[in-house]
Queue: 2 jobs
Job 1
Amino acid sequence: MKRTVGSSGLQVAPVGWGGMPLSLPPRPTESDAVALIRTGLDLGVDFIDTADVYCRDDGDIGHNERLFARALHDHPARTNVLVATKGGLCRPGGRWLAAGRPEALRAACERSLRALGVEQITLYQLHAPDPDVPFADSVGELFRLREEGKIVHVGLSNVSAEELGAGLSVGPIVSVQNQMHPLDLSAVHDGVLAACERTGVAFIAYSPVGGGAERREVLGHPALVAAGANLGVGAGTVALAWLLSLSPCILTIPGSSRLDTLRASLAARGLVLPPVLRAQLDDTFGHSRPAA
Ligand SMILES: NC(=O)c1ccc[n+]([C@@H]2O[C@H](COP(=O)([O-])OP(=O)(O)OC[C@H]3O[C@@H](n4cnc5c(N)ncnc54)[C@H](OP(=O)(O)O)[C@@H]3O)[C@@H](O)[C@H]2O)c1
């Protein structure tokens, strides 16, 4: 069953693919990565999340976008895939720094258009607010790029509910991409998820199986392991299905650099958790919402 990406009207499967592990060290060879992406497309992946900065450092900007462009260019599924990218960070010496000045965002967007080999980016997300740049200036530049036809839809990432509100006062924001996994439900508790629901914005959960920092804890969590054993799937698949059960506005973008993890994630697309199991996971991870 597909879900709508906020007010864009675009429909995608609720489990997409985050491209980051294909471009950060240790990373597969380019030909292995392209072959894996093409297999993913064959398996029905229709939503890809990438970024200009998924790469080794500033000398390698666009690595991840170029991989997806290579995999997509002659694949029969290419017209049915939503490719979302991001701008607003830079990678000097491999560090992650903010780069949200309007001129930097414009240059990043133009580089991404070239890396992706497209004339328009369907969903362009501000990677993170830049503390040295007024938020409205960064967001305003994305809407100028949209007016010029370089972007179709604008999304935000790593924002608070207040920043989402500020973004919406500049123009239609279709998505917010923040971290969310069973051991990090801050988006539930800080009101971002509720703000997305209220305003018809999609919530794209990044690092949904724990990311670099907490993947081991998520995949080894006894409640997820037991539920997976019960259902004949892995703990990661259960984690994704449970996140999706929290709200119809949630989309997930697990990263994968191997086919078995990709398959495990895609198995969550059609997995409906039995109510008893779902209630147990709700109790375990304590997702209850703050009173309105
Ligand atoms: N907006 C932001 O600031 C931001 C920040 C971080 C990430 N992201 C986006 O979110 C995506 C996902 O986040 P992430 O890559 O940090 O973390 P993640 O999806 O939580 O974890 C990714 C790792 O977990 C493994 N994995 C994936 N699905 C699995 C499953 N179903 N079962 C067991 N293991 C599984 C993969 O291993 P293998 O590599 O061995 O296949 C992968 O490397 C990124 O690729 C990126 O697109 C955005």
Job 2
Amino acid sequence: MVGPEQLHSAALLGRIDVRGVSFWYPDGTRALSAVDLVLAARRINVVFGPARAGKSSLLRLLNRLQDLVPGARHTGDVLLNGVGIFGPEVDVSDLRRRVSMVFAVPTPLPGSIRANLTYGLRMAGHRDTAFLEDRVEWSLQQAALWDEVKDRLDSSAYALSGGQRQRLCLARSLALGPEVILLDNPTSGLDPLSTALVENALQVLKDQVTIVMVPHSTQQAARLADRAAFFLDGELVEAGAGAEIFLGPTDKRTEDYVTGRFG
Ligand SMILES: Nc1ncnc2c1ncn2[C@@H]1O[C@H](COP(=O)(O)OP(=O)(O)OP(=O)(O)O)[C@@H](O)[C@H]1O
Ligand SMILES: [Mg+2]
């Protein structure tokens, strides 16, 4: 069982190495081609590029959600803190807690705000009320939602706005003490104000957790990226510091994309 100390010290980790990864769907579509990429610990790592570039395919590979696609296959390896994630000794549910996916459409569980946050912890065997209360507050604060909901933790999560739901889903992942959070277009359905709140939450969170994010737009990518990786047709074209990629890309295709010449 993971105690509060381990939950916090686990946040010191969270580096992912993608080594020579290619990935095929069962119909033979090659979604990733020989990708080598480092996702830096406790930074916002933006994965961007046009439609069908392979961004979602990559994210789903990082916590083995692609295992759920029968007949899909990959070559190469993905390392979390230097350890391969595809090894026979890897516990996949533990991996998915450590590398946690937040989906584009936020889907709270039925029940109260509090229950949304304690459900996973209870499933993991936590019963201590003081510990659970502490995790509820901590994770809501990390997701920049605490002030808005602290007086109504027992009301239904369905009463929250879209932006609040997205931060609740973020908090739900955080409650389990992940090392890496994967976000695939987390602000796609949100208005500008809610988008700004989610972006602010991510900026604060990166001190604790590695963030790997597919952005909604190139503008959002440029605002948030500590590191950026530009994908095109399953290929990693270029990766580097955010400022380099958006202000002085070395590859013509990256330049054409970030300056809006295609998209
Ligand atoms: N379940 C699937 N079965 C077969 N092919 C798929 C499947 N999912 C995605 N693909 C294909 O894999 C390639 C990469 O798709 P992916 O969804 O990873 O791209 P993306 O960069 O996330 O695109 P978008 O910006 O549209 O979300 C595309 O050619 C896509 O058609
Ligand atoms: Mg996608």
